[in-house]
Amino acid sequence: MALERFGVSMDTELLAAFDALLARKGYVNRSEGLRDLVRHALVADAWGDDEAAVLGAITIVYDHHRRELTNALLDLQHDTVAEIVCTTHVHLDHHHCLEVILARGRAGDVRGLADQLIGLRGVKHGDLTMTSGSNPLP
After folding, report:
1. Which CATH number fits domain 53-132: 3.30.70.1150, 3.20.20.70, 3.40.50.460, 2.60.120.560?
2. I want to staple 58 with a disulfide (CB 3.0 to 4.6 A). Which of 53, 54, 75, 114 is the partner?
3. Taking Cα atoms as reference points, which of 131, 125, 138 lies closest to residue 96?
4. pTM score > 0.85 for this model?
């Protein structure tokens, strides 16, 4: 892969904050940090198109003793138009479970599935982590 150099002008305080962020995250140089920011922006842009092919990780923490919640979670996963690639289930304590659901499909479908799952009564916390789908990042 060919690399191209370019210059960036930035406010001194903003650059100092960026350098501090890079140091906390363990980046070896500004270029790696900037490349990651660009990739993040490209993924976010792809997710802005409901038809874009994407992959998402839906993480939920829920009370598995909540009446009918487990069935509702399973029904949504079986009925979705997004493809469920895999799920991981972890027992946190006697009442709570963590589940990670990897879903592939159109951005709108994956986001819709995440919203439905996270919105169920008994789900204590949920989040959607978005990444690129069929188009690999440069």
Report:
1. 3.30.70.1150
2. 114
3. 125
4. no
Residue 67 has a pLDDT of 85
| Chain segment 31-82, per-residue pLDDT in tens | 999 999 998 898 888 888 899 889 999 999 999 998 899 999 999 999 998 8
Q: Which residues pair with 97 in a beta bridge?
A: 62, 91
| Residue 44 DSSP symbol | H
The domain locations on the chain are 12-47, 53-132
Tell me which residue of 30, 82, 34, 75 sits closest to 58, measured CA to CA. 82
